[in-house]
Amino acid sequence: MPKQRYEISDADWELVADLFNTPRRTGRPRANDRLMLNGVFWVLCSGATWRDMPERYGPWSTVYQRFRDWRNQGTFNKMLKRMHVKLNAQGLIDLDTWCIDSTAVKATRASSGAGKRGAEEPADHALGRSRAGLTTKIHMVCDARGVPLHFTLSAGQASDISHAQPLLDGVQVSTGWGRPRKRCRKLVADKGYDAESLRKYCDRYRMQPVIPYRVMKRKPKPGLPRLFDKPKYRERNVIERLFGWLKEHRRLATRYCKLATSYAAMVTLACCRRCLRHLFSYSA
């Protein structure tokens, strides 16, 4: 049977098959994990509801339940971590320059109204009111090649600078041995991240902030003046292009998920597809 659109290729599946294949010892035979994952990819890319899934993937309820199991077990996070190890082993992750930014995603009315959940689910479900209405923000860190390294979710009205340090603290680029890489040499961001607290944070970890100053009256700071690296700042467009690519997945361009954990799982899966694209496009 020919490969359908959105489905994972043989080479991609070979890299991650052991993360998903968990044979059942008793009871009814387990539905094929690759087929279930392809069904999740179809929902991610098409943006359709689970009930509208093509029959070739089996019952939609089975695919949805499998997605929930993988979400709760952290399978998608393990998959992204493995992609980072593979990319870093081939020298395809830029550990020198990282970019940070956020994008707002409009949420539908159906995404609101979720009740209280477990400890991992935020109280506001990462939903808030902004100029565009009900929205969610994706805060992202990527390298200079556009490889997504880490992201967090917040309500749409949250400021970028308030989530900058927690976002950077969560970066862990696995190398396969030793400690994971958590810092870069140069951090590129726009004026929304122009704050003295972030600049001191960069100084603490010996990172050079490539962040333009806002147009405002400032008192001169003691010590040597900070030099702004204009050529390096032009590389910031890589994260804008990354957001544009991620939002081609219609399940990300508009939020339909009630739970922030479900939406985060979809974002993680899209980041995995991005890493797989880098892995095979550069190695080919």
From TrEMBL:
Sequence ranges assigned to domain Insertion element IS402-like in this UniProt record: 8-79
Domain of life of the native organism: Bacteria
InterPro entries found in the cross-reference section: IS402-like_dom, Transposase_11
Domain Transposase IS4-like, residue spans: 99-273
Name under which the protein is recorded: IS5 family transposase
Organism annotation: Pseudomonas farsensis
Lineage: Bacteria, Pseudomonadati, Pseudomonadota, Gammaproteobacteria, Pseudomonadales
